[in-house]
Amino acid sequence: LIFLRHHIDDGLKYEYLTVENPLELWQNLNDRFEHLKAVVLPKALNDWSQLRFQDFKTVSEYNSTLFKIVSQLKMCGEVITDDMLLVKTYRTFHASNVLLQQQYRLHGFKKYCELIGSLLIADQNNELLLQNHDSRLTGSAHLPEVNAISSHFGGGRGRGRERGRGCVNGRNQNFLEPYNNNSMKWQNPDSKQRQNNAGQAQSKKGNCNRCGMEGHWYRACRTAKHWVDLYQASLKEKGKQV
């Protein structure tokens, strides 16, 4: 009688407080709650048929819900084996994980606990992988600074600096030079060439110093001599006016 009163609900304790015979208390509880199997079993069977592994975000949630339904079925007298649990899990994988489901089948798991253990490990590893990816996206790492690279090749004093500059071959030396001791900055070797091209383009667009015409240089001038003399004379007249 003490054992039964200890494990029943507090409301039932007060309701059956006057019952002193343990057999009578047991029969009363049995008559009151025996019909719950008929209520629980249909819902448990429906939950079992609707259970899908693909409907859960994590393996732990699926495993918890599965064992909750299995416990209700076993309480109602239904027999649930490991083969039934394995087949239930394999057949409810998401359609995009067909190859993954086949790989787990090939492992030949005999117990559901072995399968769920492998799924939990894979789920945890995937979660850690995603966390590491989200913590720093691809390409977000800081690149090494230019000054640090320049100091590695051309910086320092004494023998170390001479050794660093002397080991550069001719092809790479054109890329590394010119080196500015004062500013510790790189100079693009193509910038000087672009400046020269820009200067040449401007000189092409300017007037020829021999004839005053556009589109050619002084050395490439082919203007007749009398036109050149007229142009030079006009320049002298302008100089006198100034």
Account of the protein in words:
The chain has 13 helices and no strands. With 242 residues, the protein is mostly helical. Among the domains are: 1-131, no CATH class; 209-241. Residues 170-206 have a biased composition (Polar residues).
Structure in a nutshell:
The chain has about 240 residues and is mainly α. The protein is built from 13 helices and no strands.
Present the secondary structure layout.
Blueprint: H1 2-7, H2 10-15, H3 22-33, H4 36-50, H5 59-75, H6 82-91, H7 98-106, H8 112-135, H9 146-154, H10 159-166, H11 170-176, H12 189-205, H13 225-241
Helix pairs in contact: 4-5
The sequence of SSEs as H and E is HHHHHHHHHHHHH
Number of helices: 13
Q: Based on helices, strands and strand pairing, what is the structural class?
A: mainly alpha
Percentage of helical residues? 55-70%
Q: Tell me the β content.
A: under 5%
How far is the N terminus from the C terminus? 132 Å
Largest sheet: none
GO molecular function, one term: zinc ion binding
Biased composition (Polar residues): 170-206
Protein name: UBN2 domain-containing protein
Organism: Cephalotus follicularis (Albany pitcher plant)
